[in-house]
Design brief:
It is a single chain. The protein has about 220 residues and is mainly alpha-helical. About 55% of the residues lie in helices and about 5% in strands. It has helices spanning about 15-25, 40-45, 70-80, 85-110, 115-145, 155-170, 180-190, 195-200, 210-220; strands at about 5-10, 30, 60, 65. Strands 2-1-3-4 form a four-stranded mixed beta sheet, with helices on one face. Helix 1 (about 15-25) crosses helix 6 (about 155-170) and helix 6 (about 155-170) packs across helix 7. The structure holds glutathione. The site of glutathione has 9 residues, from loops. One of its GO terms (molecular function) is glutathione transferase activity. It comes from Mauremys mutica (yellowpond turtle). Its EC number is 2.5.1.18.
């Protein structure tokens, strides 16, 4: 039996969360290495050569130690048929998920904002979500009238767009009010069995960031 992928990261979403989402969607059981809580744990990983660029996320999977979030996501998506059926579909998927990656970067960094910048960053994050990214996904669904964003079958684009929607809604619960097709999309994709399970309380999905995780990350990475 193949060993379960093992994830090396903090007890928080950050750059690892989309990896958790894709594995969970594919129905792949995975485990978390001891969450990074101290500088010593991180230095141990650095010293044993596990982190190619001295950064996490790192995932042990199929006898490899993979780093670089996009490389890890590409591997999982390719392996589990979440990456389209040909190069054209893949190009569309790549475009759509790069939008989510840009938005997620803002969401991920927002809790690390200085007190002076918090309000401005919050407004920008919600503005970008509702004026730049969500309209694109709404239009894609409207133009082709299908259930999924690309090729009428589930792909990582659906998963990653859903992930972003849910994170934005935690901050602004009316964020989808102008996007009826995305509301239906959210309900549909959230209801797929593996995703539904991942959205249940007690799953391996990590919770909203709080002061504790910000403090831990700052301490471990000496930011
Ligand atoms: N391009 C990398 C960036 C990874 C990254 O910046 N990771 C942070 C934690 S989320 C880190 O390890 N920072 C320590 C450092 O850069 O020295 C990726 O996408 O995985």
């Amino acid at each position: 039996m193949a060993t379960k992928p093992k994830l090396y990261y903090f007890n928080g979403r950050g750059r690892m969360e989309t990896i958790r989402w894709l594995l969970a969607t594919a129905g792949v059981e995975f485990e978390e290495a001891e969450y990074l809580e101290t500088r010593e744990q991180y230095e141990k990983l650095l010293q044993d050569g596990s982190l190619l660029f001295q950064q996490v996320p790192m995932v042990e999977i199929d006898e490899m130690k993979l780093v670089q979030t996009r490389a890890i996501l590409n591997y999982i998506a390719g392996k589990h048929n979440l990456y389209g059926k040909d190069m054209k579909e893949r190009a569309l998927i790549d475009m759509y998920v790069e939008g989510t990656m840009d938005l997620n970067e803002m969401i991920m960094l927002y809790p690390f904002s200085s007190p002076e910048e918090k309000e401005k960053n919050f407004a920008l994050m919600i503005q970008r979500a509702t004026n730049r990214y969500f309209p694109v996904y709404e239009k894609v669904l409207k133009d082709h009238g299908q259930d999924f964003l690309v090729g009428n079958q589930l792909s990582r684009a659906d998963v990653q767009v859903l992930e972003s929607i849910l994170m934005i809604e935690e901050y602004e619960h009316t964020a989808l009010s102008e996007f009826p097709l995305l509301q239906a999309f959210k309900a549909r994709i959230s209801n797929l069995p593996t995703i539904k399970k991942f959205l249940q309380p007690g799953s391996q999905r990590r919770t909203e960031p709080d002061d504790r995780i910000v403090e831990t990350v700052n301490k471990v990475l000496q930011l």
